[in-house]
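Shipment paperwork, digital attachment
Item: protein structure file
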Amino acid sequence: MMKTDRLIGHAPRTRALGEDIVAIQGPCIGCKGCTGLCAALIEALSVPDAILRRA
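Attachment content:
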């Protein structure tokens, strides 16, 4: 059997996004029928940074 180690990669933007998600209280971004973490929330939090980083 081969032994492998799993290490966490360096991902500062992913870490920052995770911290933003954890800090949200109540309905995320106000979607009707909000059920919490979803693709719309992740996009709303990450797209502005992606656009600003390219400028």
